[in-house]
Amino acid sequence: MRLWIENPLAILAEGAGGGIVVEGSRIVELVPAGGAPSTPVDERFDASRHVVLPGLINTHHHFFQTLARAHPQGIDKELFPWLQSLYPIWGRIDPDMFRLGVRLALTELLMSGCTTAMDHHYLFAQGLEDAIDIEVEEARALGIRAVMARGSLTLSVKDGAAPPDHCVQDEDTILADSERLLNRYHDTSDGAMTQIALAPCAPFVVGLSLMRKSAQLAERFDCRLHTHLAETVDEEEYCLERFGMRPLDWLEEAGWMGKRTWLAHGVHFTCEECERLGRAGVGVCHCPTSNATLASGFCKTRELEAAGSPVGLGVDGSASNDSSNLMEEVRHAVMVNRLHYRSSSAVTHRDALRWATEGSARCLGREDIGTIAPGKQADLALFTMDELRFSGAHDPIAGLVLCGANRADRVMVAGVWRIVDGVPPGVDLVALREAHSAAARKFA
């Protein structure tokens, strides 16, 4: 089946004013403005009302936190007190609640134009030993591409850390389950729909031994490594006091300074550390909304990119962002970075879109997604501009970002429409919201 997505209102690709041709799961041809496909097509989709973007790629999230949005215990706090307040609440989660949290997060991401969803899940309370399996099942049911990062905690309240004692696991259990998941789900082939990453949580809740052994396992299975790093000043002070080194030195001590690694936040790197990260090829997921909500600071996106680090975009957990909307995150990235660099031209709407697509793909080590080009996977997000907020927008692509687009009209993953007329076919959104809200009330 050859599908021509024809004559879009605008498209984020050079030489494709006449649209693109999709065959199977791939883009096979870009059609110039006023042109037609080089060979006959089986089906046509009129995209004259649509702005076509590469599918957005989320590179940091915590799905279960959708159950704790705007929780009174977490409002108006910075990271460490926020964690101390919410960990006991999160520790009450059960498998049914968790599944609904995952399903809602994935659905919300997909509806925002996200075609590849990453989750960093580290909470394995009793009954949640199969949490990553649940996430894979839910992603496959929705048809969204997924990278599930098997997170971990080894330090708890008894060690002076924030996580409840019953939510952490010992090193052997973590490594054995990581290997099980890699064997079962990790696909390194071109066009892979499911991949596993290894993701010990952060310097203040895991030890160097687990970090080093995770790096060895990642090398063996050819998977990515992910962790939180340099998110707050408190973390920096903790590492200096506990380890006698800065967070990035701790990462290097763990053997993680390489192209397999991408980090969440990266707020408090010095310019010299940005250079080190760039030389090593370490990626950074920028989380502007979460960093603003928790008053963590500003990520040096321009310095990181200039040094050679891939920069991606992530919504982070829905208890610090309070949303799982990646298109909204693109707009927030523009605003936060302009504030940081004190320049309206320092970061453009196209920069933020690049972070959410091509940059995020580089963070995940993927060359088959992130851009609209022949041979790439047919992962696409199509937005209309029929709402009042877009009226008068002269540049459609800029208008999506600057006027606040937040919901795609059509989303394609691997050549299949997964959002049609703004909703995922076959998903009862009202029933999902009601079930999820009922589950969230258990956290009251």
UniProtKB/TrEMBL annotation:
One of its GO terms (molecular function) is metal ion binding. InterPro entries: Amidohydro-rel (IPR006680), Metal-dep_hydrolase_composite (IPR011059), Metal_Hydrolase (IPR032466), MTA/SAH_deaminase (IPR050287). Residues 51-385 form the Amidohydrolase-related domain. It holds the Pfam family Amidohydro_1. The keyword Nucleotide-binding does not apply. Transmembrane segments: none annotated. Keywords: Hydrolase, Metal-binding, Zinc. PANTHER family: AMIDOHYDROLASE-RELATED DOMAIN-CONTAINING PROTEIN, AMINOHYDROLASE SSNA-RELATED. Belongs to the metallo-dependent hydrolases superfamily. ATZ/TRZ family. This is 8-oxoguanine deaminase. It comes from Salinarimonas ramus. The lineage of its organism: Bacteria, Pseudomonadati, Pseudomonadota, Alphaproteobacteria, Hyphomicrobiales.
